[in-house]
Amino acid sequence: MKKYLGLLKYSKPYRTNIFLYFLFTLLSIVFSVVSIGMLFPFMDIIFTGGALVTQKPEAALNAASMLKSLQYYLSQIIIAHDKLYALGAVCIFIIVSVFLKNLFVYLTYYAMSPIRNGVMVQLRNDIYNKILNLPIGYFTEQRKGDLMSRMTEDTGELEGAVANTLIGLIKDPITIIFYLFVLLFLSPKLSLILLILLPVAGFIIGKLSKSLKRNSNLAAEKSAEGFGILEETLSSMRIIKAFTAEDLIQKKFVTVNQELFNIKNKLNYRRDLASPVSELLGIVVLCVILWFGGSIILQNKDLGLSGPSFIVYIALFSQIISPAKSLTTAFYSMQRGTTALNRIDQIMQAPNTIIDKPDAIELNSFKNSIEFRNVNFYYNDTPILKNINLVIEKGKTIAFVGSSGAGKSTLADLVPRFHDISGGELLIDGVSIKNYTLKSLRQQISIVTQEPLLFNDTIYNNITLGKRNASNEEVEDAAKVANAYNFIVQKENGFQSNIGDRGGKLSGGERQRLTIARAILKNPPILILDEATSALDTESEKLVQDAINNMMQNRTSIVIAHRLSTIRHADEIIVLKKGEIAERGTHEGLLAQNGIYKNLVEMQEVK
Description:
This protein is of the alpha/beta class.
């Protein structure tokens, strides 16, 4: 319940709606009581031949006096006209009361809708913003399918739970309390039985719901697992088909889906049991009161109620059964919603260690150098980089080479603070990069990765990702430098052509040249090129490499090289082995050392 109360912060913009919701709820309950409670005293006079009340009773704050007053006014109508006229008046009165009751019921939903939807919209925004701001390392430990499940399935589950909870834990308790107050007013003696029996019924219902939260958590986990399989299937369709693994993947998905089916059935069995059990318990309580009160009246003992008043009492109590059913359903929904909220909260509470310092300064320009001083980096207590000492002067090209797992990409990722160093210092222009704001630091850097990462959008919007206010001329110039202009203008819609999911409508070389055009348009002083040509064919590689050479002019470049032929002219080549600098120097100098680098070159030449 505490976590649910935490959602109240999202309802602050809707204070007026909350006030109206409470007001309309109270009014709907009042007219519900009026439409039922006022019927039976009138019927007693009109149909059963009850004596007319000709003398106005003294005003008193008790049920008998108030009912007597109503009978007096009805008697006056009968005396002035006749019973048929009075019956018509009663019917009109009931119709108006029921109309007003249902009008205010509708208005409660009208007032509630912006609250419910507004809370969920803001919650989704906050989850998405949190995901955008979490460090890269967080996503290496999480399955994308699980994150997608929390953004969709869990927020959807929570939305339904919030709606039921707001109605069931606000409107229904108000309704029950109001009716109980009226019943206490009508007969404190009978109502004492209610106060004893209702907690017993609530205890029984609470016992039935114990396992709901555990099963809800299992359902959420299985749903996330299914999302993960779906995400992997969509992103690996070529491999699945190439290895004829359709049956294997299908079996995997069907198994998870069947497990989800079984768990959800158990959940629904428990949830659906709430309504009939609560209704049965309500009828049991009603019958106990009916028997107890009826026996007293039939024995002509004092209960404080006449026969018609007792019928009113029973009718009013019957109106408690429906909100009691809704209340139990809301309780079950809250249990399921709590599971969803816990899963969402795991994202919201995930620590974001890479943040700006309170006194962080702006890095407005890169002037001198990037310096690694005894830099160490650990991942889950496993050393990845050890004692890295390196200075990258402005305008120089530095290449990182080494076998897979040597730490090349990790070392480059430290510069834009995708990860924070575990020890030592990383400086830009003599200042620790932790002292710069993240935004200003990353504005000085462009990255071109081995896998071209593009969005399902137009060519123009993909190129302008890092500079959204660029002119058409600037975009075209960037495309020309990246050797992308010719193929772009040959598209039917030119720069406004949609490139499909992850740029699927383009070839590998075309996708890579778009990422280069994007980096060129941003026009940063620092470039990080992470094996940007390793996945291309020879023709595409030449076009892309020419584009890269154009882009690297007058910039400081960090190149992670797979094909060593592309880094022959680097100012310095850093050979990494198991997270340490094993060799360093120019291409010719490293060949002369007859060490690791020379072996790597010879292996590629043999290939």
